[in-house]
Amino acid sequence: MGEFRDVAAIDDIPVGTGRAVEINGRTVALFHTESGFFAIDNSCPHRGGPLVDGDLSCDEIVCPWHFWVFDLKTGRHADPRIRVATHEVKQERGRILLRVSEDVSGGGIV
C-alpha cells in the first residue's frame, strides 16, 4: 500500500458534501457524511458517471447518470458482483489524509 497523502482540510468538505481529488494518478471521490469521511473511485462502473456529482444519502452515493447506488463503506452496489474501489481515509490535525488502495480494477463486475 502507498502512503497517506494530505488531500484537504476537514472544514473544506462539510457534512453532506463531496469533492473529487487527484492522487497517485487516480480521481477519487471524497465524501463527508454523518458517519465520517469515505473515499471511493470517482467513476461509476456502469458508464463512467462522476460519482462525486451524485446524490449523497446517509452513507450511499447515487450515480448522477443512471442512478446506480453504492455503499460508501464497502463500494458495493445492490448486485454484489458490482462495486467501486474504496480507499482508506483518516483525520489528523484538521486535515484529511487519504491512502489509495492498490485495487486498480476500476470497479465493475467482480
Walkthrough of the structure:
- With 110 residues, the protein is mostly beta strands.
- The protein has a single domain (5-109), classed as Rieske [2Fe-2S] iron-sulphur domain (Rieske Iron-sulfur Protein).
- Helices cover 0% and strands 46% of the residues.
- The strands form 3 sheets. It has a 6-stranded antiparallel beta sheet, with no helix packed on it. A 3-stranded antiparallel beta sheet has the order 5-6-7, with no helix packed on it. Strands 8-11 form a two-stranded antiparallel ribbon.
- Strand 6 (60-62) and strand 7 (69-71) form a beta hairpin.
- The two termini are 21 Å apart.
- 34% of the residues are buried.
- The mean pLDDT is 92.
What's the structural blueprint in terms of helices and strands?
Layout: E1 5-9, E2 17-23, E3 26-33, E4 36-41, E5 55-57, E6 60-62, E7 69-71, E8 82-83, E9 86-92, E10 95-99, E11 108-109
Antiparallel strand pairs: 1-10, 2-3, 3-4, 4-9, 5-6, 6-7, 8-11, 9-10
Beta-strand level of the residues, as a percent range?
Answer: over 45%
Helix content range: under 10%
The CATH topology name reads Rieske Iron-sulfur Protein
Rg over alpha carbons: 13 Å
DSSP summary: helix tally: 0
What's the SSE pattern? Answer: EEEEEEEEEEE
